[in-house]
Amino acid sequence: MRAGVSAGVVGLLERGQAARMTVSAVRRIAEAMELRLGWDAGYRGPELARLRDADHSHVAQAVTSQLAHHGWLVVPEASFNRYGDRGRIDLLAYHPDARMLLAIEIKTLIVDVQDVLGNLNVKARVAPHVAQSLGWRPSAVLPTLIVLDTRTNRRRIADHDRLFARLSLRGPAALRWLRRPIGSLGGLLLFRSLPNRSTGDRRQAGRQRMRRQRTDSSVAASGEEARSAPGRCLRAIRL
Length: 239
Known about the structure:
Layout: H1 7-14, H2 23-32, H3 45-69, E1 73-82, E2 85-95, E3 100-107, H4 113-133, E4 140-148, H5 151-159, E5 169-170, H6 171-179, E6 188-192, E7 209-213, H7 223-228, E8 234-238
Parallel strand pairs: 3-4, 4-6, 5-6
Antiparallel strand pairs: 1-2, 2-3, 7-8
């Protein structure tokens, strides 16, 4: 009743037949029952997940190299388990001279802003304890969010700028601070592009180009016949 749908519609969802329902009906039922829905709409779901993982790895590797160049000690995928908080910090970075600690979260796609910030807060809270287990003695910990530089991610952060207010050091100022970490801050927010690669860009997966294939000259009709006869030219989709 709260969802405003019939018992039959609810029954479809209970029997796993959501494909027969409208997105609106599924959302209304979820809201009525305070359930969270996770949508993964995109071109070839499993491939999209693999590409995101690859992008995440490329960004992490680039950031690790940059921080190491500026004198930071970096531990990737630092795991933690403390008072019910479990997970991994994408990158844990420590500057021994400044005694600054960075709890770095890398996001290739921002979907749920509150979820991103909530996870970052948890990792910043447990980061000092993980650092101590490594023999580091930080005087301050800074939550750091590094986001893949896309128009969608920039728009979502701009739309929720107040929620990201704690991550006040951004852009060139944040890069300068990483080179010379002096003074305590609220947090850092940086956009990072993927390194250029000469091979076919995977991001072209959504674009399809139609291309004609020539038939073998020994069997193809000549001149006007080849242009007029149906089925003589084959089209191939090239991703």
